[in-house]
Write a structure and sequence with these properties.
CATH class: Mainly Alpha
Helix content: 40-55%
Distance between the termini: 23 Å
Number of domains: 1
CATH architecture: Alpha/alpha barrel
Radius of gyration: 20 Å
Number of strands: 19
Length: 478
Amino acid sequence: MEAAKALPDNHLGMRQNSCIPEAPHAVHYLTMRFQSLACSLLLIGLVASASTADGQSKSRKKTTRSTRTTSKKPEQQPAPARIDSSLATSPIASAAIADERQLFVNAARVAWAFVERNYQSSTGLARAHDTYQYVTLWDVASALAATYSAHELGLLADAPYNQRMQRALATLGSMDLFDGAAFNKSYDSRTGRMIDRNQRLSSKGYGWSTTDIGRLLIWLRIIAVNQPQFAQQANAIVKRLNMPRMIANGYLQGSDLDPQTGQLRVYPEGRIGYEQYAAAGLALWGFRAEKALDASLNALPVNVLGVSIVADKRGDERVTSEPYIMMGMETGWFSPELREQAWRVLAAQEARYKSTGTLTMVSEDALPDPPYYFYYYNVYRQGRSFTVDAPAGSGYTDRPRWLSSKAAYAWHALLPSAYTLAVVQAVQGAMMPGRGWGAGVYEGTLKPTGDASLNTAALILEAACYNLRGHPFLRMTL
């Protein structure tokens, strides 16, 4: 999970060369693509604005995350929201596609500025935030994703890319492991040393998150498959891990030291979405947590503003954009159930806009807002729609509510529509030229959140790469 301020000890993993993915429904996808083209004049304006901003001059944190639906045909698919007529224009066909690509590249260039500034040459890693040197394995994976995507987009030349990737993989090949089995939950990005839960250097560490390790395994596989010159290093890293200890009874299993007793404790990790995403990482290396991969096993159909989505009958789910946008861009939605759930998660957000007039784009993000500084904005959580909460049993909070920059760009890359384009337009204020992207803009006021982060940068870079290629990073079936 992304690094944020220190969190309570019982936040146990609830985070919740490629192939062209099948669209959720061909007609729906083509409709969304047409609407995206119909907004091409808006795109031209956005590109001009982004280019101007990018030419201007160039300024904390830790958490953890959290099952597939039945393959029923959906009822009627929600129609895309009607965007104000001021946003719509007539199609400009191929010119619009070029303009859209430039829009993504401009966003990626700003995102890459954050990674460049926070790069740690001693380890090949990157800080998760400008003023916070500690990183989780989720952050380490995001640094790999950002670097890989920047190279693919031409933002990083071959020689420095190879040097950075080799250095990062060498660090992963020599980092101390928790209990000799798996990567510790957190490390110092400058030295690659383990830290304890109080952010002190430690030779012991304090546990592992299989969800975070799952994200890292996905990116190691992407690199090994698409860039064979790094395959030997990637394979050696994976062989260091005791994978069977991360799986118990077909589910993912995390581990940590009890802060009171110091005893090792294990616990199940994952709920709908995050669980499948992380399990895919292990499966790509031949270690299958079959129950975790099977999203239908714990599926609980629920209704959100007329859109049928799937929650988790075990409870404690966080149904939000994050796992679905990463899965879509990196591995593809590897089952019909996950494809259905992905577009429905987006459709529910559009439905809230249609119902309230409030543009909605939810995710998990590090924010400058006290007291938690890291929040989940959920489409659905434990019987409630469009909730905001923080990790580790903090309960619900009405604020902050924000439009997520990374979710906006990722959804527009994956399932483009007039609605996703309108949200991309709305988050432009989160761009900080020379510094990176803030988490987004606050609902209603559209005031920028500030507080650029590695994970926001990584997903915007991934989205730009996906937009350019038109397919996920991997061509593999699970």
